[in-house]
Amino acid sequence: MRTRVGLALVCALGLAVAPGINAYARSKRADQARQFQKPLTGDEKILQALNRLTWGPRPGDVREVKSVGLKKWIDRQLHPENVVENPMLEEKLKTLDTLTMSGAELVRNYPTPQMVRQMVNGQLPFPADPDRKLMLTKLMEKFEQRQAKGGDAAAAPGPANGKALSDLFPPAEVRSLRQGSPQQRLAAFLALPREKQDDAIGAMPQGLRQGLLAIAAPDLRRRIEMANGPQQMVARDLYEGKLLRAIYSNRQLDDVLTDFWFNHFNVYLDKGADRYLVTEYERDVIRPHVLGKFKELLEATAKSPAMLFYLDNWQSVGPVGAQAQGKKNARGLNENYGRELLELHTLGVDGGYTQTDVTEAARCFTGWTIRQPQRGGEFFFNGRVHDEGEKIVLGVRISAGGGMSDGEKVLDLVAHHPSTAHFISQQLAIRFVADEPPASLVDRMAETFRKTDGDLRAVMKTMLESREFFSQGAWRSKLKSPLEVVASAVRASGGEVDYAFPLANQVAQLGQPLYRKQEPTGYANFSREWLNSGGLLARMNFAVQLADNKVPGVKVDAPAAGIALGSPEFQKR
Predict the structure, then answer these.
(1) Which helix (H) or strand (E) holds 50?
(2) Which of 164, 186, 365, 380 lies 20 to 30 Å (CA to CA) from residue 413?
(3) DSSP 37
(4) 368-371 and 378-381 as β-strands: parallel, antiparallel, unpaired?
(5) Where would I find the H helices in 433-526?
């Protein structure tokens, strides 16, 4: 009982990695500024670093930081290329093959039913793997049969050839598959020949399939999931990959920053073609740039098909391009990207821009588009629909006839704007220090941003070497987000994850469905966004389930779950 209650409080109140609720009372005190001048003790500094720069300390992490030295440990995290990755993580990620694919490869290997029909009709190429081609062909047959009977061809496939288990197998085999514990049903399934296994997967009711997922080996689990619809695998792999990295990666700061910058440059997974574009976006656009130059990160997002599709800039055209389309369904100037570029990505809402600047910036990005977005397309500049007229953005004249360089000039302009240096520094300080970070710290970070041409590693270093970061004002000043709750609880309890998708469901139930923040703001860095009675109760329920080993796919170390973080026992484990 002590273990269950202790872990429940840890998760529900956000105390496993130091964040707590008492910060809200402290923030109202008259001596708030003085709190940021009061230093932490040596052990508190270590826990503060582990709390903010990782997804939560694991048993033994405090001892490890002490042995390396706090300053050296932070320097290693600031240089993830020098940190040897956890081989266990690399092994677990191997099964999630979509994480290494391009958008076009995802479309071919994990298509929607409509795309499979196009493959059958010769409009799209089949995957090179003959087994994958055969599997997709069979799925198409099931979709066509459902449609012929008046059903929804886009829905998840039902029984193979319209038949139930009883139509395909002898009664004794059907009883074995339907009755008994999940382990007994799995044993009965594995006793079938391989060709019969595929038929059984197709004929199983949805509930029976789901019951096998948590206990099946990764390769079998993938076969079962594929029967629910190949296109779903792209999102499932993203969810699992995110949780596995958070829990197992040795490059913790790199992963925390990837999450921060994805939210800063948010895109929405469920918007059309983005279901196939987000994987590349996080892997190739966000992650490689989180400790590089801000301008390089900004330009990479501006040219990303995921961002262009999400904010509709791929359809934005100048007046000549609009006239060329004729009157019917003609497209025109779209200001979505121009607005979010200034308001959310760079200057900030109070950064000194006007609506005219939004419109002029949008004109500069006409023609920045995507080649065949529904097929996992790539960025290209279409000069035929670009607005070649003169523009004035933030008081700077951009001459006529600049083509693609118009947009690049805007990116350079806003990346070096003083408001951007302050806004980016403030957002980082809110995420890593406090909801209301000291203005003096933000100013010093902004000065580093300007002096180093937007070097994000240098800005982070300024923050991490500050007295404010290791102060009583920052200590326990943040309430964890749902993702932090789930990842930190598993890490703190020494949990082993075989199947991470149920954890992703837990994050969604706590209010943060991964990759599914529809608004361009991304998920909030402010603790107050997660503080409500319903959310705290849900955290408590999750904690109890985790401590009792009732979260599918996860096994926790019960003794570790009952040890207080920072205690000698926790450090030794």
Answers:
(1) helix 42-53
(2) 380
(3) T
(4) antiparallel
(5) 439-451, 456-464, 482-492, 501-509
φ, ψ of residue 378 in degrees (nearest 5): -120, 160
**Entry pTM:** 0.91
- Tokens 């025109």 sit on residue: 332
**The token pair that represents 314 in the structure block:** 């791929």
Identify the CA nearest to 126 among candidates 196, 31, 45, 230: 230
Residue 210: alpha-carbon gap to chain centroid: 24
pLDDT tens profile 24-52: 444 455 577 899 999 999 999 999 999 99
In the prediction, which pLDDT does 132 show?
80
- Nearest alpha carbon to residue 173 among 183, 181, 182, 185: 185
Angle ∠(70,72,74) on CA atoms, nearest 5: 70
| C-alpha span between 259 and 264 (Å, rounded) | 9
Q: How far apart are CA 407 and CA 400, in angstroms?
A: 12
Q: What is the pLDDT of residues 154-191, one digit of tens each?
A: 444 444 445 677 777 788 878 877 887 888 888 888 88
What are the residues whose beta carbons fall under 8 Å from the beta carbon of 147, sequence distance 6 or more? 153
Q: At what angle do helices 252-264 and 232-248 cross, to 10 degrees?
A: 140
Q: Are 487 and 243 in contact (CB under 8 A)?
A: yes
